[in-house]
């Protein structure tokens, strides 16, 4: 095998060739990974970014309009602490989906999603990882909102606390699953169409993350609020169910080579972001 490295101040190109490989008595190159300088011209990037950025803008506007309408829901009128959850969950989904999009785009650019075995491991590992992160951060966000409300108002309502916890964890998990699958589809289609996934996936993740989270939070919290008078045990069962998933997802991620490093080192940024966003919920 020979390796050629070309360097300039703006880009490093790596060209790998297997000079000789006898396959059916023929000499064939086995690996050829080459990044052409002409692939990232400014007008190509601009053309690829126009539609995703427009979708991102419309998605964020739609999320804001929908959030305004949620004030009419009874759960938002009765449990004002839920507004503290909104910025934390929105930022959580944005952080998780954009980091997911970045990881998957990198794997697409190096060709790993073209291999069926690696694609399956990538998909399963990343979806389970963001579910794990969503459960943990969603639960912490609910606890922070309950604590802030308790300190500011001086009283604690166990029923409202259960609704907040179950709504937060359920919203984070459902939204992460849906958006994880959507991100994988977007990146695979971009790769197949010879479009740089980095230019498509991140703005789509930003727009869909906000809109999906607001829709799921409004629907789930209203549903749980309506049934809590008749099936209060369901709230406890929901929380316990998601908490029991944490060790299971942790073991699966630890055994997946594509996400085990993120499992160890990827917590502090999203936890810090959650605390910062929760304080912003007081203003909201």
CATH architecture of the largest domain: Orthogonal Bundle
CATH homologous superfamily of the largest domain, by name? SLC41 divalent cation transporters, integral membrane domain
Number of discrete helical segments: 9
Secondary-structure content class? mainly alpha
Ends distance: 60 Å
Q: Provide the spatial order of strands within the biggest beta sheet.
A: 1-2
Succession of helices and strands: EEEEHHHHHHHHH
Strand content: 5-15%
Helix content: over 70%
How many beta-strand segments?
4
Rounded to an integer, what's the Rg over CA atoms? 22 Å
CATH T-level topology of the largest domain: Tetracycline Repressor, domain 2
Count of discrete domains: 2
Query: Could you say which overall geometry the principal axes of the C-alpha atoms support?
Result: globular
What does this structure look like?
The chain has 284 residues and is mostly helical. Helix content is 74%, strand content 6%. It is built from nine helices and four strands, in the order ββββααααααααα. The strands form two sheets. Strands 1-2 form a two-stranded antiparallel sheet. It has a two-stranded antiparallel ribbon with strand order 3-4. The longest helix has 38 residues, at 116-153. The chain is globular, with a radius of gyration of 22 Å.
């Amino acid at each position: 095998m020979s390796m050629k490295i070309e360097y300039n101040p703006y880009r490093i190109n790596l060209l790998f060739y297997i000079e000789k490989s006898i396959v059916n008595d023929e000499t064939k190159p086995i690996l050829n990974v080459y990044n052409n300088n002409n692939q990232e011209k400014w007008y190509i990037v601009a053309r690829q970014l126009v539609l995703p950025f427009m979708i991102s803008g419309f998605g964020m506007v739609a999320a804001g309009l929908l959030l305004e309408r949620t004030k009419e829901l009874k759960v938002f009128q009765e449990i004002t602490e839920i507004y503290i959850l909104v910025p934390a969950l929105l930022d959580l989904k944005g952080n998780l989906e954009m980091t997911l999009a970045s990881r998957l785009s990198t794997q697409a650019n190096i060709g790993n999603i073209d291999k069926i075995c690696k694609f399956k491991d990538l998909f399963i590992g990343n979806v389970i990882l963001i579910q794990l992160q969503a459960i943990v951060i969603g639960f912490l966000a609910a606890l922070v909102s309950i604590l802030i409300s308790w300190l500011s108002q001086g009283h604690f309502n166990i029923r409202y606390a259960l609704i907040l916890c179950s709504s937060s964890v359920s919203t984070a998990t459902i939204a992460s699953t849906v958006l994880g699958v959507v991100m994988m589809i977007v990146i695979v289609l971009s790769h197949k169409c010879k479009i740089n996934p980095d230019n498509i996936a991140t703005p789509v993740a930003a727009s869909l993350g906000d809109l999906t989270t607001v829709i799921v939070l409004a629907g789930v919290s209203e549903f749980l609020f309506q049934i809590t008078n008749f099936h209060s045990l369901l709230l406890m069962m929901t929380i316990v169910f998601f908490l029991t998933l944490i060790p299971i997802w942790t073991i699966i991620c630890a055994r997946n080579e594509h996400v085990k490093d993120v499992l160890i080192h990827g917590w502090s940024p999203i936890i810090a972001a959650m605390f910062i966003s929760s304080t912003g919920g007081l203003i909201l």
